[in-house]
Design goal:
By secondary structure, the protein is mainly β. The chain folds into three domains: 3-76, no CATH class; 79-123, no CATH class; 125-182, no CATH class. 0% of the residues lie in helices and 20% in strands. A two-stranded antiparallel sheet has the order 1-2. Strands 3-4 form a two-stranded antiparallel sheet. A two-stranded antiparallel ribbon has the order 5-6. The N and C termini lie far apart (112 Å).
Length: 187
């Protein structure tokens, strides 16, 4: 074949970026026009073609500030792959399983000492045991905050003050609570 009769060079498929709202998935290539075993070369968006799929190799390949980290295993731009990308308080911890910045993964991630591991948020309490003061001994589980007691059971975790009286845990509320003996200064 003469040089002017050569077949035109194969052009690589151009990447079409499509972002999944739920997972921030990487761009996909039109598989019908992809060249098999094409070399890995970045397109204008910074994505690299791999076996008909475009994806990132480095964080620099990710142009969306909300998805600024590259998960090199999948070639997907994600919110984070470690805590380094989580800089907006209160979401300073990376949930690497979900590639998302969250408040916490465990109790030690929270100043309050309590992480609601289902929602990944720091809370004041999850059970009455988390509320150690006599004036706020009950955990309001709907609000995840410590509240005043409304019944003796809300004070049972405080051994010195197991009875509830007007929203506060006290040693006893009647002679029966104190073993039939009057405590000095309790009336």
């Amino acid at each position: 074949m003469r040089s002017e009769e050569r077949a035109p060079p194969v052009e690589y498929a151009s990447a079409r970026r499509s972002q999944s709202a739920s997972a921030g998935m990487s761009a996909q290539v039109d598989a019908s026009s992809a060249t098999p075993n094409a070399p890995q070369s970045p397109d204008a968006s910074g994505y690299v073609e791999r076996n008909g799929v475009c994806g990132c190799r480095l964080d620099q390949d990710c142009n969306d500030p909300a998805l600024a980290s590259c998960d090199s295993r999948s070639g997907t731009c994600v919110a984070c792959v470690n805590d380094r990308r989580c800089r907006s308080a209160p979401k300073l911890t990376c949930d690497v399983g979900a590639f998302a910045c969250v408040e916490c993964l465990q109790d030690g991630d929270c100043e309050s000492g309590h992480c609601n591991e289902q929602d990944h948020v720091c809370v004041a309490c999850e059970a009455d045991m988390d509320c150690p003061t006599t004036n706020r001994s009950h955990c309001n589980t709907a609000m995840k905050t410590c509240a005043p007691c409304s019944q003796d059971a809300h004070c049972s975790h405080l051994s010195a003050t197991p009875a509830c009286d007007s929203g506060k845990c006290v040693g006893c509320t009647d002679d029966g609570d104190c073993g039939g003996k009057r405590l000095r200064g309790s009336w």
